[in-house]
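Q: How would the structure tokens look for this protein?
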Amino acid sequence: MARPRIKDVARRAGVSEKTVSNVINDYAHVSEKTRSVVREAIAELGYRVNLAGRHLRRGRTGIIALVVPELTIPYFAELATQVIREAERRSLTVLVHQSKGSHEHELAALDGFGFDFTDGLILSPLALTTQDIAERTGTLPTVLLGEYLEEGADHVAIDNGLAAREATEHLLALGRRSILALGGRDAPGTGTAEARTRGFRAALEAADIPYDPADVLPVPEYRIGDGLTALRAVLAAGRRPDAVLCYNDLLALGALRALHEAGLRVPADVAVIGFDDVEAGRFSVPSLTTVAPDKAAVARTAVELLVRRIEGGSRDDGPRNVVVPHRLLVRESAGPAPGR
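A: Here is the predicted structure in token form.
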């Protein structure tokens, strides 16, 4: 049996092919009665939109790439789900790739992996530098997620410095004075860890609490085991912090385990805050206080910016740096919110 076409739908619904096309493309000037009749005909015939043909007529593939460090990290898996949802609303397909934080893989992504099968790229880089962006030779429309790299591409991120400062201020308001920054990096740079460390330090200095670089604990990776190992070593050395600001929720979950093993109560003895608001943190014992980026807004903004670049509506615009909202979700691991 031949696949139904627009003219078959038009004949069944008793309308023109142009009207069917208007309904399919969700144009506003079609009456609800006509829209209902056309949709009923589409359902009866089993008509499906030929998206490939539509995109190819526009000189595009209808495919965008999303490149994240690892899908085993819950934040990136949750973010990928949001990006796919936003892309589907625009009849786009998302090709998801893991970079493993490799500089080589991230550079290859900027070049479209050497092929022309994607219309654009959303990339969450760990290893790229400002120079990499400035020197890129490809023309693939690109949106970067994370800290602003200053050159040549749109960016979408939360204000990581401000978020870390607010989280630290919450701990200070609870009376905590010996705070560790787990996953931090006390160095100049444009990365997320550096930005959060600057926010952490700013909060301490504003409260007239001396900043000690030894309170910033780098980790090899941002996984539960890394948080457990790092904090376990600190506690074994005899240090007793009264709060831990963790640079993602996985590190915070590892910290909770290390504190439990040491017989320390959370939050009575040590308060813990994470970043990302991943699902597991809502069900940990105690539940995890966390900085929650608006992941839906990150995805929506990234896709909108990318589609705008793909369609050529902003060829003369410079790179856009969009800051999306975040909020501190106070749960059991860091006590009550100040003033409550």
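The chain has 13 helices and twelve strands.

The mean pLDDT is 89.

Upvote if useful.
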